[in-house]
Design goal:
This protein is of the alpha/beta class. It folds into 3 domains: 83 residues, Arc Repressor Mutant, subunit A (Orthogonal Bundle); 102 residues, D-Maltodextrin-Binding Protein, domain 2; 98 residues, 3-Layer(aba) Sandwich (D-Maltodextrin-Binding Protein, domain 2), CATH 3.40.190.10. 45% of the residues lie in helices and 22% in strands. The protein has 11 helices and 12 strands. The strands form 4 sheets. The protein has a 5-stranded mixed β-sheet with strand order 4-3-5-12-6, with helices on both faces. It has a 3-stranded antiparallel β-sheet with strand order 10-7-11. The chain has a two-stranded antiparallel ribbon with strand order 1-2. The chain is rod-shaped.
């Protein structure tokens, strides 16, 4: 049963006159007649009958009237709920610790101020591979990925910002006063790595393998802050995005080493599944992100 036909039926129950119903609804009388006949045909029941010039509701019509009110009311409730939901909902974002800590806090604050009824859920991804997997499987709505720029068959990505990778050490490290360091110089060095799958760890490992360099000692951490603390304590050296070590370089707790190697360019990218339905609040987040990274 068509909701439109039920609404016409309810109006006719009030007027008991097809002409008056047509005037009220701004339909042609033939349209009202056709809608009522369609209902009667679907139900195989007579809803109205004429007694002379008077039209009355049949017993079947009386029963349908009760249900029609409920169905029309439910349809209106559903429509109102859906319209209200446009200003509510959940946005699930995935990103690595570096993005969460150094790139996104102000963007998330501004978005939350604009959309206080949207629940923001931040899902930490320990690697760009993990963030990509979460996007493909629909676990997150959008991800910030720090990697070399390349196309993915199921994702749409927007480059936002190029990121420099820096080899850093403690100011008292034996490399800190050298004018140039090559991959071969790292053979006897302790390297502090992020978790496997991290884009800049992959780049560093590939650089060393290209020169057949196998560091004497490597340590793996899940926390960037832990890596920085250990580098500052002169436990070893690390390759990290500039945004991660910017403050420590400025205050002299870390130093950039003159690493002689042509590093690939890393790019902060915003990505989502190409088949993702873009809600109004997700669209606005995408637009706000583009403006934020242009500043």
């Amino acid at each position: 049963m068509d909701i439109k036909h039920l609404k016409t039926f309810l109006d006719t129950c009030e007027t008991l006159n097809f002409t008056k119903t047509a005037t009220r609804l701004q339909y042609a009388q033939s349209s009202v007649t056709a809608q009522i006949k369609r209902l009667e045909s679907e139900l195989d029941l007579k809803l109205f009958e004429r007694l002379g010039k008077k039209m009355i509701l049949t017993q079947s019509g009386e029963r349908l009237k009760t249900y029609a009110h409920k169905l029309v009311s439910l349809e209106e409730e559903a429509r109102t709920s859906m319209l209200t939901a446009q200003d509510e909902g959940t946005l699930v974002i995935g990103a690595q610790e570096s993005q969460c800590t150094y790139r996104l806090p102000h963007l998330l604050r501004d978005y939350k101020l604009k959309y206080p009824t949207i629940d923001l859920i931040f899902k930490s991804a320990h690697s760009d591979e993990e963030a990509t997997k979460s996007l493909i499987e629909g676990e997150i709505d959008l991800a910030f990925i720090l990697d070399t720029q390349r196309e993915h068959p199921t994702l749409l990505s927007t480059p936002l910002l190029e990121e420099r990778l820096l080899l850093v050490s403690s100011p008292v490290h034996r490399f800190s006063h050298l004018s140039q360091i090559s991959p071969n110089d790292l053979t006897t060095e302790t390297i502090l790595y992020t978790e496997k799958g991290c884009s800049y760890r992959n780049i560093f490992e590939n650089a060393l393998l290209t020169h057949q360099v196998h560091p004497k000692t490597t340590l793996e951490f899940i926390s960037l802050e832990a890596i920085k603390r250990c580098v500052m304590a002169n436990l070893g050296i690390a390759l990290l995005p500039e945004m991660v070590v910017d403050q420590e370089l400025k205050n002299g707790h870390l130093v950039e080493l003159p690493f002689h190697y042509n590093m690939p360019v890393l790019t902060t990218q915003m990505a989502y599944h190409k088949n993702k339905w873009i809600s109004n609040h997700l669209r606005d987040f995408i637009d706000m992100t583009k403006l934020y990274f242009k500043k």
